[in-house]
Amino acid sequence: xxxxxxxxxxxQFQIDSLAGDLAGNPFAFTNSALWMLIVLGAIFVFMLxxxxxxxxxxxxxVMVEGITSFVASMIDTSxxxxxxxxxxxxxxxxxxxxxxxxxxxxxxxxxxxxxxxTVTSQFTITxxxxxxxxxxxxxxxxWKHGFHFFSLFIPHGTPKPLLPLIFxxxxxxxxxxxxxxxxxxxxxxxxxxxxxxxxxxxIVSGLNAEGAMGPAxxxxxxxxxxxxxxxxxxxxxxxxYVFALLTSLYINDAENLH
Length: 258
Description:
This protein is mainly alpha-helical. It has seven helices and two strands. Strands 1-2 form a two-stranded antiparallel ribbon.
């Protein structure tokens, strides 16, 4: 039963210092920073290997071009021709979230001394990306439309007596966008990882238990982990797509004032 007490579902999200003291030191190098660098390195290798511009593209080049075309098509559909100038940012957050989510699900922990870390399970990370996206929306909106940008919060056909109320409701809904954008990704990642960890504790408990029910519970928990892991792979891709799509739609509001 000693092994059971060592399983803590929340321990995987703990920020640990790898260099420097976390207490009062803003420049400490943490496991979160390390895995962000690993994610960026993996994206760099993936993109570099797929940018060979061969006459007959290989599978790697097809994958890179396919993802690039997918994001570009999403922006064209959401924003229109004016959206191409936002492609670098939308493509960056899509790739970063996708790779961070997928690498957080990889079984790197089987290697002794390796402790995988899902950076998108930290609200500060998802929050910073959401704030940057929201800042782009505000800058574009006021730069292109000036104070007419506030017309975004007054739907067409609104009765005049309801204008103040509708304006406040729409403004509040607009201001909540960055929080909901960051929270959606954060919750999706942290919930899936906790669920897998809980079922892993059931496996340990089942193997340590006496009687025939213990191994049966362990086997059932293992099957649940396999199913949840497969679902998490799908969720990892969906969350990257949703974050990029919502960013494009929010930019579209600022660009076209719909």
